[in-house]
Amino acid sequence: QDKPVQATDLVEIFEKLGGKHPGFRKAHAKGMCATGTFTPVANDEFAGAALLNSGQLPVTMRFSLGGANPASDERAPGTRGLGVQIKLPDGRLHYFTGNNFPVFAGKDPETFFGFLSTLLPDENGKSNPAKTMEFVKNNPSVQANVMWNKTAKTPASYANTQFFGLHTFYYDNADKVRTKYRWEIVPTLGVKTLEKDEAAKMPEAFLADTFAKQLADGEVSFSIVANIGEAEDTDVDPSQQWPADRHQVTLGKLTVSSAGSDVCKNINFDPNILSAGFKSSDDPILRMRSPAYAVSFGKRLSNQ
Ligand code: HEM
CATH for 7-301? Predict the structure, then answer.
């Protein structure tokens, strides 16, 4: 657990846990692509950002289930994700790629990898919950995520799911004044989950149909909001939430116009690709995401 973990190690363990599925994403294999627009809201904290001063911008997004299995059961609670690619007029891209849990499972790639390792079946093909419990006890930084997973309910729809950026990012304005923030994507239709018995009555795959129906019935949209960090809020640890009372500003609104295209296939929703003025923090999980996504991108495009 002490030796540095590489992006290839993480992709490999995802494949061990979720199976080898050539041509699919090595995480969030099952998903749905959608297109829409981003309508910015100007504000002082992000003054001068091209992202918020270029009018309405085209968006490609992908909603997904966690895990490497492209046939995941959508009735199960657990990870849901959203990748958002916003295209600026000069061709520059800005990504927001987040999940529905508010804290990550580990403060760094080594802890995350160590945790995943405990979930692997042993030589008899059996999982060993005691091993996982022992790891969780000894690694406080995975505990909040494990607790979240214990109580998480099945999301009723992607349109009723809130997504968290988890990591800390910065925006430096022209006067070099820095805004430190963490973003969230909040559904206009509200967060809705299914109780166990309700979920059991659903078909194994219902998310695409539910979404299409909501889109046909009215507007499906989300707000992108930024929680503004204070000096004592961690910059580098996505396993720790910031206090809930931080000043919040709206960056803009994401409105979905269509769902179900396959344009996401050739997109790598790398959260470190940001438009002018924005920067990633040194959060080691955030930094690990670029190489891991690149490994997966290369593999899936070459049908591995
Ligand atoms: C070290 C930690 C992480 C690793 C190794 C990792 C790895 C990956 C990989 C390999 C993919 C597939 C990329 C592709 O083929 O295009 C992926 C997709 C994704 N990840 Fe992560 N990830 C990590 C952390 C996170 C975190 C913290 C979040 C949420 C804040 C997140 C959200 C997502 C989402 C939403 C997708 C799907 C994007 C899409 O639809 O293309 N991941 N991740």
Answer: 2.40.180.10
